[in-house]
Amino acid sequence: FTGKTVFITGASRGIGAAAAREFAALGANVALAARSAADIDRIAGEIGANAIAVPCDVADRASVMAAVAKTVDRFGSLDVLINNAGSIDPIGRLRDIDADAWDKVIDVNVKGVFYGIQAALPHMAGGGSILTIGSGAATSALEGWSHYCTSKAAVHHLNACLDKEERDNGIRALILSPGTVATEMQRSIKKSGINPVAQM
User: Fold this and answer.
1) How far apart (Å, rounded) are the C-alpha atoms in residues 195 and 59?
2) Of the candidates 73, 20, 71, 12, which has an alpha carbon nearest to the alpha carbon of residue 47?
3) CA pair distance 36, 157, nearest whole angstrom
4) What is the DSSP string of the chain?
5) Which residues does 16 contact at the CB level (< 8 Å), separation at least 6?
6) How far from the centroid of its chain's Cα atoms is residue 191's Cα?
7) In whole angstroms, what is the distance from residue 105 CA to residue 109 CA?
8) Which pLDDT score, from 0 to 100, does residue 128 have?
9) pTM of the predicted model, to two decimals?
10) pLDDT, tens only, 9-25
11) pLDDT tens digit string along 70-113?
12) So what's the pLDDT on residue 198?
């Protein structure tokens, strides 16, 4: 990965922060994107000169476009996009969940991935990889997760469309479903106690 540039959303904690450290250790330039500027500043500082923090709200298309442009300005290329940012809160049953909160999860988990793809593709003229964090929730409905299951199913199909449209242009479109990982999201899931995954 020496000389390659990796842009990671949701990089302030969990899988995103771990991915940034791992790619940097393999020699890549890494751009850590998240809303929490202080956290990504700290992590980028710990990684070193081949890392930058780019504050970004994936639910805001202009914010995503600006963050990707800043990354390309700094490192001169974009080779890998990792669509990791995601939300599951608030967990709740369909009859009770706040509609605006439900919408926000769709904005982050679906539109955020779409915005990332649109921002990255023009900079991957020579090919590249777009990896999106998926979930078993894309194919298995779970109580209290209507927004999350719906968003992950959408993202799986979005990735399949990306593959069909861009494969011949050298773009690898990948979904990674990592299973149950000890992140802040998993702690929210466990606290909810609403379905079998919360018991894991």
Assistant:
1) 27
2) 20
3) 29
4) -TT-EEEEESTTSHHHHHHHHHHHHTT-EEEEEES-HHHHHHHHHHH-TTEEEEE--TT-HHHHHHHHHHHHHHHS---EEEE-----PSP--TTTS-HHHHHHHHIIIIIHHHHHHHHHGGG-TT-EEEEEE--GGGTS--TT-HHHHHHHHHHHHHHHHHHHHHGGGTEEEEEE---S--SHHHHHHHHH--SGGGG-
5) 8, 9, 10, 32, 34, 82, 84, 85
6) 23
7) 6
8) 98
9) 0.88
10) 999 999 999 999 999 99
11) 999 999 999 999 999 998 888 889 999 999 999 999 999 999 99
12) 56
Cα distances (angstroms) measured from residue 58 to each of 6, 20, 65, 140, 191: 16, 17, 9, 25, 26
The pair of structure tokens assigned to 53 is 């923090």
Which residues belong to the active site? Answer: 148
